[in-house]
Protein: Tectonin beta-propeller repeat-containing protein 1
Amino acid sequence: MSSSLLWAVDVYGKVYSLSTTRGRWERDEDTLLELKRVTAGQRCSWGIGCDHHVYLNIDPGEVPIRYREETYENQRWNPVDGFTDVLLPTDRWAWSDLTGGTAQPLHSFLLPSNSWEWEGDWYVDQVCAGGDPIETGGWEYAVDFPANFSREKKWNSCVCRRRWIRDRIYKARGSWTKIPLDHPKQPPLPLSDVSCGGWEMSDQPGRYHFLWGVSQQGQVWFRSGILPQVPEGQCWEQVEAPREVAQISAGPGDLLWAVLWDGQLLVRTGICLDSPTGSSWVVVDSPPVKEGGTIHVAVGVSVVWAVTKDYKVWFRRGVNSHNPCGSGWISIGGEMMMVDVGLNDQVWGVGEDRGLYFRKGVTPSEPSGRGWIPVSAQWGHSKEMVQPRSVAYGVHTENAHFPVFLHCIRFHIFCMKGSMRWWRDWKPYRWVDVGVALEQSTNVNGKRDAIFFIYFTQYDEKKYLHVFISDVTVLVPVLKENSHHAFAVYTSDSTKQRWPLILSAQTEKDMADWLSLLAGCCCEARGIRGTPSRQALWSVTSKGDVMVHEPSPCLEAPAHTLPCDMMFWLQVPGHLRCVESNSLGVVWGIGYDGTAWVYSGSGSQSCAFPVFVGDRCILHTQTDGRTVYIYENQRWNPVTGYTDKLLPTDRFPWSDDNGFTECTKSTTHPPSPQWSWVTEWAVDLAFSGGTDKEGWQYAADFLTFHGNKSLKDFVRRRRWVRKCKITLTAPWQEVPPIPLSDITVLPCLAQSSMEQVSVWGLSDKGDVLCRLGVGCQAWLAICISIHPKGVRWCWALYRPFKFFHTNFYKPFLYGPCFVH
Structure:
């Protein structure tokens, strides 16, 4: 049974391992081995011995580790001896590598360390480079060096070669062995820290390992050439750092952090398979502590943990390969001397009591976890507990599970990730596939904050955008080309620049889920809960979206004025042409079709949340209709008469009202995917200004039009009309039966004791209407209608009735009726 392995080094240098299959600490078989640091990768572990040597431990496996050495025997033909190893001075060596530039006689090949042994003697490769067998003793022939070799000997073949190979096998799997010193290169000074990472960067996890080290003088070193067939690597290379480094940590991906001697932090950028040592260092501030700075850092796939001098634990938010520096520190409960990040970003720590702890509840959506758990595994068959000085988590297959005990909870971090498309609003304008992440955090005071990240790659360079949720001013669905599930994220700055962040989800449900999640975070960051207050500000957009802003109590105070572009507007389900409200919380609106609607008191915090009173939902079915217009434009010429062949300076043949935008029948769509056509395109004969019998209006140029054609009219247009309809579930109740063109609610002071107000309206026929008794607790309602011939009053008495199994008076949010 495969297992995960946790390595630990105690204060005496003894090495222990804890496996999920054993459930207890086991000391390494080499009782003389003493390590002071340990780090683990995928199926291998590294350590620094007390003798300052670097040690390697490769997990036992069924597939042996083999490395094939090769060298080439080269000969040239001469008329006396034939083919011989006596070559020209300009030729390659008699025994060389493939290129011929390096001499490689058979006796020059030595085992790199005692961990290897030969698996046989040298022998000639009987297969040529093309894969065909060679029947001539392994020789390949060519005209000269270098040239294309073949197995066939020709009349002009003047040189030949054959390959000798010998395999060696790694025999020290499952034990700690010394890494040989570099020859002839100068080895690094004694190392004080070492960290292994990078095994998840390639398509084949575990193929590459990046080993980093820090010398006692603060220099940074990199072990190059670590491959599955060369687990020890080839040599150490120094990586220049701006200041002396005290500790270093590499993640499974391309993250690398280092701690400076003064407690500040360094982040290495530009790490990739083509450039494993990266390109530059970036200085990152230490967590905000009074003094001392950071003493330890641990890096995972997309997390960074740190321990400060006062042994407080910190979590770095917003860290990933696109943003290796992250965006801020968050204090985590518990006091540790060091921490380590293992498989799936699981976290282990060594406490001040030298006890081992495991971070509970670490998941992709909660990367900071929920608390520390002491690991109570015993050593061998005794009851003695291991007191580790250094720990490292070996990546095998699965995580260890231990009895849980909640140690401390101070912070909770929530992270939601997904994939979308982002509209790049500069040339070339197009949709770009991006990764998105919403990171929400809660501090000890219960205050919540969140950051929305967008990750993308441009010219093979990883980049990111981020938006602080506290800066978001509005979230609205938008209609964008080649996307039916797009929405825009506005901030105060993007509003000024007219450059919102536009994203597109894969499905309508995904868009609704993200809008709901983002809107909920916006409300939580601003402390908005429950139904809109009576002082809420209501508005509608040009598309008919209903928005509400929750003001502060001192909105109108000169010292607390809030600019309009910084107000947060929350979308309320519904579709209206205009909306009116007063300080008693009475909200009325009119749809594009003239239907009057009254707000029914939704408790929604976003457009995706249902609203309930008791155990029943108070949402209603709302419908609205709109009329879409496009214009057909033509110009007269003496040959063909009126035609759609216009001048280059004219408007489009099919356009909007002003002619600046091309609008054809096939490219004109309803306002959003929620709308559907209910009629076909038809000529509008009721166009203001009059038309002829075919619907045309005429003018001398595209300026002022009239319905009758004259000799001076060289252009004409006609309007096409098509109706669409939307049906949605929203907290708006219809108030029939009179269509209205305008409406207003009687204003009153916020401190007013009025329980009923009047609503004035203007019908689509020009009648002025007044509706009395509109309130939240009214059971007696009065209606009045003003008519040119006089005034009539109507009284209406409503009795109690049963609603939700409770006797109470029905609240008349919209009054009894309009009377004409």
Summary: Confidence is low (pLDDT under 50) at residues 395-411, 602-617, 777-820. The CA atoms of residues 419 and 435 lie 4 Å apart. The two ends are 85 Å apart (CA to CA). The helical segments are 492-497, 508-526.
